[in-house]
Amino acid sequence: MQNGTLLVVAGKFPLLQHLTQTGHTLINFQKPRFFDRRSPALCEASVLMDLDKTDELVELAQVLSHRRKLIGAYSQNEFGLFAAARINEVLASTCRFNPSSTVQAARDKGRFREINGFGALACRTDNPWQICSTHRELSEFLTQSDWPEGLIVKPRCGVASMGVKRVRNAEDIASIEIPGEGLLAELFVRGTQFSVETFSFNGTHRLICINQEALSECGASNEFVNVGHMLPMNLGRELNERLFDSAKTALDAIGLIHGPCHTEMIVSNGEVFIIEMNTRPAGSPIPEMIFASTGFDLYSLCVDWFLGRDVEPRIELHANGGAAVRHFMPPPGRLLAVHGLEQAQSVKGVSRVMLQVSPGQIIPTLESGFERAGYVTAVGDSPESAYASCCLAVSLVQFEVDPHSA
Q: pLDDT tens digits for 271-300?
């Protein structure tokens, strides 16, 4: 493929760094909230706009296509996946990309449930999930379901666990804001949460690894925010195959044929339930953890496959113990100081201590993945030992916070 211009939708700085190595010039479309001052130096142009305005993005791409050779539109961010797919469809890009209908089938949680159902619970109840547009509908669904664990509600196209809440009673329902498109409400399933990381080569799905997730639970305003991961998990042949088979069935159902997918699941009392799918690599630092524990470079494969390069359609892993991440969970308020970073970095196996806040900044309550304050990554002889190192390092870091400034 000759060099040209690559449109990047919601490209963050590390991705832009990687894409500069392709030889193509870059034009990056990004939400103002996520603008990084380092990014313009890597791009011919940076455009700040509302990425939900897909039609405007497509029109801009069409205008640009008359002035330069456009290769296609690339995204590995939830905010940009649908727009990138639509641009590629309209421009008839020769890159390898999934149809916008596939992206939307994964992003719209209601549509995803229509296609993939709700696992074994569908055999026990006629209505394990429902789109609710009013508080009355939500209240009626809670009553009719008569499920001891209550419900979980989610925005239809939410990201980073934003707006995900548990509903057990009328008080919980009253606290929920219901947008015009409604919320997905479904039976709450308690269990161990995993993600299945896959890559698809022209519709042939390959397993990269299984990742075990830890949720914030009662220690945060939103109990469903992921605060830890460890991989690659070996859960035994039978469960490994069941998780991968469940992922493959869902991938085929939404029509995914190209590239990475991050499929979240819960295992409860031996039963597998798919939570949702994201037609992109897992969020950082999971790809870095995969590389550290297996030597597999997911980011490079994503870009090379999209650009149509000659790629061997297989996943080669060289197991080298395990890797893990644990996020900090400081209390909300104005950050005054952080102590113990050197001690955390010195813990055996720790590879990175990353702070995403600075003294003087306000640490918000943990409502979604966007409010996380930083993390520790580690490697070890096993995923469990790596995660133990992360937890020890996190415990050594103390955030001095003025809670009255929250």
A: 999 999 999 999 989 999 999 999 999 999
